[in-house]
Design goal:
Elements (H helix, E strand, L loop, with lengths): L4 H25 L6 E4 L2 E4 L25 H5 L14 H22 L14 H9 L6 H33 L4 H16 L14 H21 L19 H4 L17 H20 L2 H20 L10 H8 L4 H24 L8 H31 L6 H14 L4 H22 L8 H27 L17
Antiparallel strand pairs: 1-2
Helix pairs in contact: 1-3, 1-5, 3-5, 3-10, 4-5, 5-6, 5-14, 5-16, 6-13, 6-14, 7-12, 7-13, 9-10, 10-16, 12-13, 13-14, 14-16, 15-16
Bound molecules: zinc ion (ZN).
Length: 493
């Protein structure tokens, strides 16, 4: 039936696997966009849709049934049907991971009542959302709550997809395209403006958080204006940053990369064996644990499978880690990074000023949600930026990229300010674990940070609020007082 978690979960798994297939295209092609490519007798710039998928070795077109996510790779046993060239195991793993993550979030939100944003009714499905729109939904609170839950799930699935793409590109090239972070910010702003983003803590514009969001946003606009007019200096404008995605200097210096095959694990079998073991553990968890634990384990499994596909690299893959190290030790790091502190002054100062002066604004629901998005954006981006600045001042080499700043700003915009701290503290733990693995394997240790921020953000969709609860209880020094989560549900009292 339509309420069936297995049916809807499977449908979302299939949807996720298909989106994962497109994420593979984004991850691999983003580094080569616009480069001239000859295919089928035609030479044109490479885009996300051209040339159509084909085997890079024998150039044969891939038929639709050879493009079925996950299954085609298993059926072909990881080799091109025509020339038997190896198809990187990254393809099926990213598809599988995206599908698992979508299904896990759906089950957690709708069938266990768990997640960073509670969904009104347990036991109902995404189809209820459709019923709410096309049926008698208008005045019905249950339906409206369901509808909001569906929008929340949709936005979070979008978050997962964009973070997977950003992580894959960061792992390969040490850069995060601003197009990806901007589209996330746009999605968060749009859904909040149209009143469709329920769970994000809404902010009363007259409260302190709301006033900080107003002041901080005003300051950010001032800084952007001053930067645009050339009054504020750009940092590192003299240094050729091959990887930088957003310094003006980079635009004219981006080298033409020679197109290389998708970097992926050298050997497929360790990733395949690991994935099969993980899937067996997930299946067991559905049989023997509660729905919540199983949903969390499924989400964690999705993240590990994604990393198994994206992080290990074959020895032929382009490796830019040496270049990143060289760039991070650019001359005058401390002077350059202070220019970024100048940029941050107006938002920080205006946010503090607005927080200390009580003023009141009208507070329609859309403004409250918009301020919730903006405070998350400012807090997420600001926290990583201050980390970058203080780290660079301390060690005299660039710590963290501006791409990470943009990424955390986008994450904050989607999940809200209160989940920023849990993410900020989970990410380095994950990164450290991977650094230890690399140390044991004797591999390169230049770590991109984007994947860890991304994995932490996705985990925080389920574990963020419990962690926040826990440390709020610690801070308040009480062991019993329940900390209420100020959820704002349009249509609910
Ligand atoms: Zn082939």
């Amino acid at each position: 039936m339509l309420l069936n978690p297995i049916l809807t979960g499977t449908a979302l798994f299939v949807l996720g696997a298909c989106i994962g297939s497109f994420l593979n295209v984004i991850i691999w092609r983003s580094a080569y966009l616009g480069q001239p490519v000859t295919f089928g007798g035609k030479t044109a710039g490479l885009s996300l849709s051209w040339p159509p998928s084909h085997c890079p070795h024998c150039n044969c077109a891939i038929r639709w049934y050879q493009n079925i996510p996950v299954l085609a790779w298993v059926w072909l046993r990881g080799r091109c049907a025509k020339c038997q060239a190896k198809i990187p195991v990254r393809y099926p793993l990213v598809e599988l991971a995206t599908g698992l993550a979508f299904a896990a979030l759906y089950v957690a939100y709708f069938h266990t009542g768990w997640g960073h944003q509670p969904v009104g009714l347990a036991g109902a499905g995404i189809w209820h959302m459709v019923a709410a729109v096309f049926g008698n939904g208008a005045g019905n609170q249950q339906f409206r709550s369901m509808f909001n839950g569906g929008i929340t799930l949709g936005l979070d699935m979008f978050l997962v997809a964009v973070l997977f793409a950003a992580s894959g590109i960061d792992a390969d090239w040490y850069e995060i395209p601003t197009a990806l972070t901007n589209i996330l910010i746009a999605a968060a702003l749009l859904t909040s403006l149209f009143g469709l983003q329920p769970g994000l803590p809404a902010l009363n514009p007259s409260g302190m958080g709301g006033r900080m969001a107003v002041g901080g946003t005003a300051g950010l606009l001032v800084s952007l204006g001053l930067l645009w007019r050339g009054i504020l200096p750009r940092s590192f404008s003299q240094v050729v940053f091959v990887h930088a995605t957003d310094t003006a200097a980079a635009d004219s210096h981006i080298p033409q990369r020679s197109i290389a095959p998708m970097p992926g694990p050298q050997k497929s079998w360790p990733s395949v064996v690991g994935t099969v073991l993980i899937l067996l553990a997930v299946a067991a968890s559905w049989l023997w644990t509660s729905g919540r634990a199983a949903a969390l384990l499924t989400l964690m499994a999705a993240l590990v499978i994604f990393l198994l596909g994206v992080l290990p690299r074959s020895s032929e893959a382009p490796d830019e880690s040496a270049q990143v190290l060289e760039e991070s030790a650019a001359p005058n790091v401390r002077v350059e990074i202070l220019k970024e502190l100048l940029f941050l002054m107006p938002p920080v100062v205006l946010a503090l000023v607005a927080a200390s002066i009580p003023f009141s604004l009208p507070h329609p629901a859309w403004l409250q949600r918009l301020l919730g998005v903006l405070l998350g954006l400012l807090f997420g981006g600001g926290l990583i930026w201050l980390t970058r600045i203080s780290g660079s001042l301390a060690f005299n080499r660039v710590a963290m990229g501006l791409g990470d700043v943009h990424l955390m700003a986008a994450i904050g915009a989607v999940v809200g300010a209160r989940l920023v701290l849990p993410i900020f503290f989970i990410a380095p733990v994950l990164g450290l674990l991977w650094a230890i693995v690399l140390k044991f394997m004797g591999k390169r240790n230049v770590l991109p940070y984007g994947p860890w921020l991304s994995m932490a953000a996705i985990l925080a969709l389920l574990v963020g609020w419990p962690i926040e609860h826990w440390y709020l209880l610690k801070i308040s020094g009480s062991s019993t007082a329940p900390v209420t989560i100020p959820m704002h549900w349009p249509g609910t009292p």
